[in-house]
Each structure stands twice: as C-alpha cells, then as structure tokens.
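Why this split exists: single-chain examples teach little about how molecules sit against one another. For that reason, every record in the complexes split bundles all components of an assembly together and asks for one structure covering all of them. Below is a record exactly as it appears in the raw files.
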Amino acid sequence: MSRVPDLDKLFSPKSIVLIGSSTIKINQNMISPTIFNAIRENLKEFKGTVKVIDIKDGNVKVNLEKEYDVAVIVLPPKETISSLRQIGEKIHFAIIIPGGFSDEDKAKLIELSKKYNFRILGPNSIMGVISSSIRLNTSFEPDFIPEVGSISIVCQSGGVGASLLDSLIEEGLGLDLSIWIGDSLDIDVIEVLKYLGKRDQTKTIGIYLEGVKDGRAFLSAIAEIVPDKPIVILKGGVAEASAERALLHTASIAGSHRIFTVAVRQAGAIVVEAIDEFITALKALGLKSKSMKGRSIAIVSNVGGPAILAADACFLYGFSTPPLSDEVYKRIKKVFPLIEPVNPIDLIADADYNRYIMVLKEVMKEEHIDGILLITMFRSCLTTPEDVKKIIEMVSFKKPCVIYTGGYGDLRKLMSVLPPEYHRKVVVVDDVWKAAFAFDVLYDYSVTCVEAAKRYMSSVVE
Amino acid sequence: MSRVPDLDKLFSPKSIVLIGSSTIKINQNMISPTIFNAIRENLKEFKGTVKVIDIKDGNVKVNLEKEYDVAVIVLPPKETISSLRQIGEKIHFAIIIPGGFSDEDKAKLIELSKKYNFRILGPNSIMGVISSSIRLNTSFEPDFIPEVGSISIVCQSGGVGASLLDSLIEEGLGLDLSIWIGDSLDIDVIEVLKYLGKRDQTKTIGIYLEGVKDGRAFLSAIAEIVPDKPIVILKGGVAEASAERALLHTASIAGSHRIFTVAVRQAGAIVVEAIDEFITALKALGLKSKSMKGRSIAIVSNVGGPAILAADACFLYGFSTPPLSDEVYKRIKKVFPLIEPVNPIDLIADADYNRYIMVLKEVMKEEHIDGILLITMFRSCLTTPEDVKKIIEMVSFKKPCVIYTGGYGDLRKLMSVLPPEYHRKVVVVDDVWKAAFAFDVLYDYSVTCVEAAKRYMSSVVE
C-alpha cells in the first residue's frame, strides 16, 4: 500500500502550499472564504515554509516553482482535481479538507495520485493535521494547538477530534499529533497507526473510529504496537441508527460493535465508550509510572463523604481498599493521633501539605497497595492548590496516583497552579468514577493488554 | 419529633447570632479563628440582623438581650455547651458547625435543647445552611452562594455538598437551600425532607446520604413528596470499606446498598451513583417541561461523529432514534437539499441558527418524538454560542431538550452567553452520556416515579 516509504513528510513537513479561494463559497461542504482565510491565518504559526495560492475564480491556474512536502487544499471537487493535476509533480502529500466528492471525483483523485506519485489525506479530512512541536494547524480553528506532548490522536470525525482537542487544551495535556483521516481514500487509519507506532515522539495513541475496511491488518497493527505504546479506541456506531449515520458520514460500515470490541481487545487495545473516558484513559496512560500490578487502592482524603463515594466507585470497578499494615497505621497514628488511618483515610478538612506528605510517603511504602487515590478538595477544606503542588513536588510517585479535587471550580483552581509536567506524575480528574476508571485502564494496560498483544502476534505467526 | 411547628425560622431566619472565637484553635475539628472569621465575613451579606460574639478565652460569657432565630456556633464542645446554656432561652435554632463531640457532650446538648426549647442542626454540620434568596452562607467558603433557584440539597457530608455547590455555581444553576445535616443529633434528614416538601420555593430535592436511622419514615416522606417534586438520592457506602468509613464519618450505618436502592426507588426517588449524575439529574428535573412520555429521541447535530456517539449512548440507555415522518423529511429536504434528514440528523458543520430553527420546529411537531438531543459544537463548526442563544430564544421547547456542546471549552463558551433562565428551557451537558442520562431521569420521573410513589402511599395506608 505504501509507495512513499513513510509518512514523515506529511506529519513533520518542512514546506506547505495552501490552495484555496477567498471568493468561492459552497454551502454545507466546508468550502468558504472564512475557512480558507482561517487556515491561512493558522499557518502563519507553522515552523516551516508556507506558500498561499488564492484561486479567485473557476479558472484554476497553479504553478509551483519549488517542491512542497504538503499541499493543503480547500476547494470544491472540480477545482481540487484541476489544481492537483497542475501541481501533482511538485508535492508529496495532499491534505484535502472539504467533503462532497463523488465516486467519480474520487476515482480521478486516485488516478492523479498514482500518476504523479503523491499521497492523499482525506477528502473530508475537515481539520487535516495538528502537530504541536512544529506549530502546524491546518484546521480553521484558531488557538487549537495543545502543549507539546506525547499523545497522538487519529480521528475519523472532525467533531469528535475537535471535542477531544478542546478538552486536551483546557486540561493542559500535551499532544504530539492529531490527524483527521476523513474518508480514507488513500491513507487510512492502519497506515497512520503503523507510522505512529514507529514515531519516537508518540508514546500513547488514541483512535476514534467509525469503521475499518481491513480488520485483520488493523488488528495486527495494534498488536505490534501495544507492547511499546498503549492504544485507546473509541468506536462510534453501536446502535443501528448511528451505524446508518456512520455510513452517510464517512462511508464506514460499523459492523457488530460487540465483535469489534472483543477483537481489538484480543489484539491488546483498550476500548472506551465515551469521549470522557477517552480523555481519562489518555491522561492515565501518559503517567511515567504506568505500572500497576494489582487491584488494591489506598484512598487518602481531606473529606469524608467524597472518600466514601470514591471507595464505592473503586469497589464497583472491582478494586479493593485494604487496610494499612500495622506498622504504617501506628506511625501515622503517632504523628496525627486524631486521625483514624483506616483505608479510606480521612486526613480531615484542615489537612495541610505536611499531613498529606507524611501519610503519602508511608502509604507509598506499602507493598500491598498498587495505586493511590488522592482526594484534595479545596471547597469546605483548608487545603489549597499550592499545597497540592507542593505534595506533587515532594512525594516520589512510584505507584500510579490519581487526584480528585471535587467540583469543576476546584479542578480549575488546581490546574491553574500546576505546570504541564505534572501530567507525567499524577492524573487529575473531577469525578471519583473517572479516578476508578483511570486505575482500571492502568491495570488493564500493565497486566492484560501487553500479554494479549503478544499472544495475538504469536497466533498470527503460527 | 418536631416540637417547633416547622423549620422556617432555621431556613429563612431574620436574625442570626454567630458565636465563635478569634483565639481558640483546635486541630482537626474545624475549630479555628480562620473559620470563625470567614463565617463572620460571609454573614455580612445576609439579608437580616447579625450579631457576632467573639469568645476570647475559655471563660465563656454570653448575654443576649434580644431573641435570635438562629445561633451559629463555632466553638469546641465545652464552650459550645456553656454558651448554649446561657443563650438557650433566647434562640430557636442552633447550627453547630464543628465535629468532635463525645456521646456525653451530645447528651448534654439534647438536654439543653429540651430544657430551653431550641432545636439543633449538627453537630459536625461543617457548612450549616446556604440560602440564595436571603444571601445566607454559614459556611467558611467565600463566594459560595449560587443563583437564586428552585433546587434544594440536603447533605450528610461537608465535602460532597461542597462539591455539588461548587459545580452548581460553575454552571450557573439556581439554588434555593443547601443544608448540611452533619451528625443529625436532633434535626435529621427526614424532618428536613418533610419541610422541603412543603416549601414553595423548592421544586427539586437532592439528597446525599450515608445512612438513615428510621427507614420507614424516610420512605414515607419520599413517597408523599414525589408526586409534587422529584427527589434525587446519591448514597455513599456501597462497599464494605466505605461503609466502615461512613460509620466513622457521620456515625451512619450504611446498610445494604442494594436493599436501600430498591426501597427508595419503590417510594419514587431517583437514585444516582455519582456526583456528576447527581448534577445532571438536578439540571434535567429543573426543566419547565419535565414531561417525557416515551423513549424516542431525535438527534439534531452540526457534527457527524458526535451525533453517532450520542445515538450510541441513547441506544445503550434504552432509547431509540426513530426516523422522521415522510412529511417532515420532505419539508426539511426541500429547504436544505444537501442535508440527509435521517435521525440522527446532521445539519453539517456550517449550520447557522436559521438551519437549526427550521429543523427543530419541524421535529418539535413530530408526535412520535419524546425528546430532542441538540448537538451544537463550536470547535470544527461555524455555529456560534450566539446562534445557540438565538435558538433557545426562538424555539418553543414543548418537549425536553438536552444540548451537548463538545469539549469543556465549548461548554464554557456557551454558558458565558446564556442567562440563568435558560436552565428552565434546556439542559446543557458536556458529554453525550450525560445527555442520555438526562433523558433517562426525565422519563423515569414522568412515568415511573410518580406512579411508584402513589402505589407506595396506598400500600402504607392499607
């Protein structure tokens, strides 16, 4: 399938030509001067060469003197085909943003790509590619580049990808690449996945998928990558009605959701059911210490009620909150006699960072504890966001640690004082269920997924 | 149980005396000058008379010349008892904020309350009472009064209540009362519940509970209220470990979670499992048009992928997304030929408010549709928050409508342009699962809960 050795020139381009129009407007297919101008504006941030060609009327004339790694095209089908005919020899990749291409149009695109030896992302890619490190943003959204990080996302939907990226930015999470594959006329999710598997900057991969054409190849690609990098998949098209919409949306056959889920799990991927879970899973799998060998959690909290709800959520996810060892119990009791260090441990609402740090260091030593759920509420408590920052700085988190802060306001207060690096040390969530889910994903990856992937690969070889 | 005819003087007081200390500090029981000073500051906003008494040393001398509806007390047990002995005749209610009262202390409190005929909220109430309409805030949190509204919340935990209120404030939701019952030495959840059932300003009731002493009385109170006002319950103490913590926390015996859930559902309450669900349920039940008679949803969206995920979530909650009628299909197709109005309906990312309004008005007429899930993403779309505001203004929502906006950023953008009244017309959520859950709660209340409550009451009478 791959005629060009790899997709590096597409995802780490040095030069881009943008071809669109400040006059042509076609309703309902994302072709308008607004979108063209927005992309032009966004490409000003790109760390590389950019040339802009504005097609003023239907009479397309494009003449490139130099070669470009990528052409970003925002034109109607006829004009897209016409311009690619003229520049095909001078480009390596075309990102086709708009949708609305007929089968005939698509056949012509493929013909041109073969003739001139360029590859196509899209059509109907909608947002194209966002790369944080080189400040590349081919979407029409301003301020849409997250912090530089190690998560890469592949999306078959503009909207789902945009939602994800919006949340990533809000939470200060780091991104390597975000790729909208659109109709997968040429480059498809499997090829992108294989590329991400080899790309050093990417450590965690998230995929939103409505359907995949070659199931076996997809599963093999997953199984090969998973021992090195976790893969999280959100699949759309569970219901019959939504499968029908998926067919209209990206021409995907959703297939049986249950069969899909079982198959990708056997190949070692983590399957999530909601955008929320998607983000929580990506956050959890971005931890430096991903390793979680068992299902015992210690809950350390400054509030009683939320600690109880957290223990409930852990319990319903199949985790236990076993008692601390006698020695640790006694050592905590000696320093803080008014605290009753059963697990969940309530440090009481006036806990400061000293109380947290002492207890956390003790709990971190407990061999039978696999993960720590830290509850640090600010509302109704004397603990401050600065206290939590100090805790993260002063405790060495050798076991996965998830922090729950209470309401939306508390979460925002905490995030406003934490630098982006904290994401490598702890996972911060705004719901106790997300906390339990984060542990579930970490355990799943550490224990189940890697083994499953290896088993899958050996079964394929046999 | 009730010696005072009702709790009006406690929850709508005209005069308050705050008794605390700017010198006494006791670790781990929420007794400190910081807390006393914060409450004093908060009471400056109260629309009524406030007197502050600062106990400078252990030698408690309090002398009230006038009567006060409520005494808010932030003193250690000995000083609390001593001051109540001196002011008992002059007050109707005492809100005791701190915890740490021994059984002997508690016996003395009860003795005093009987002797002087005042009632007690707490001890260990932590935050006391917040009433939006009279700007009453006996908590030590600043800026902790939500918009005036019709939701009332009763909490057995400071932290859970604080989390809820934090989210209510962030989302601009309206509150009538928030009540922290603490250890329920005198006034308990049942008495408060009965009061809220009769209180005009309260239209929806939320309860966080770790345990209840008189189960039968609790169920009867629920069943009596539910036909008029929905009741949502979040229960802590599902797991054994958390039940143990609940016992330490508010001396509650959590009992069997399953039995509890079945029993309160039979009495007509809605049971939720997470703070998130709690808030979504309260939002949904605050709609003017709560009535939802069936389980058919129309999804109207400007993005394909999220519409598919939304249909999946609805499907997994047991809802269907049936096709539109031929007439409506044709009318939409005539105005917007490029749109394929199957359900979920994708209006395409360049939809403006005109396109939404036309389609929504048509869908609103469909008799076989019970609720509308409106997806209005901004990221990756040309729709704006102002468009959505216009939609809410121009469409008459005779059926429940839930709006999903995409990522956290999108949600905040939308909320920043919407006035508080919009909560009565539509429910805004940041997750498709919350959308499906909101419909589930609405259907549950409209169809199941009211009937269950009536059945429960008649079975009790027999």
